[in-house]
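The protein record filed below.
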Amino acid sequence: MKNGTLSITGTSSAIRWTEASGSETITCILARECPFTIIANDRKIVTLFASPLALKELTIGYLFTSGFIRSASQISDWQYDPVGCQATMTVTPASDARNDSPDSSMSLDASVVRAASRWIAECSVVFRESGGVHAAGLYDPRTGPLFFYEDVARHNAVDKVIGKALMDELDMAQVFMIRTGRTSLEIAEKAHAAGILILIARGAPTLQALEFAQYAGMTLLGFARTDEFTMYTHPQRLRL
């Protein structure tokens, strides 16, 4: 346990079989998932199953992408109880004035997409150890990587990234999101709610995610590797 939370991995023995050497006993590193309950204003909002790290970022990101808050400043007195695996907080109402991100004229070179894909593939130490988590991060095309988070659930990793960006008051229309795994409709909707215009993944999108991105004006890329990527929607933001 570290800083009141469990470690993100644990170990277990297992038996591995290969054609070359038969069976042998090994020690596996496994990703840990824990129930995490969010309680706001004495009301239970949700219980998520998540990797036990960056739980404040997860809280803020989830409440934002679920429509409960508009900014991180609405949350105060956030407290985490590691025994009950729950976070309590006060949420104040949003002001009537909206603070929408300005339109962005951002465009990307193919080399930036390749660099971002390489970064998200290499930065996830827990994935390399366990193979059991997803990673999501924000990347500034002008300066490079900003930050990333890992989680056993791909949508939790996205919420953690969005929560961190809200805490830092980052204009998400000026950066793009890069992820491992596939892109579902839920993830596309979360990115759009945060004002992200370019969403890139190393896996494929679902048909519903593609249709939503097309309608919402988002640039959606998949199969982004060091030497290739596929553009599904609004390719005008790519300089090839």
Helices lie at 55-65, 110-123, 125-130, 154-167, 185-193, 207-216. The chain has six helices and 14 strands. Residues 135 and 207 are 22 Å apart (CA to CA).
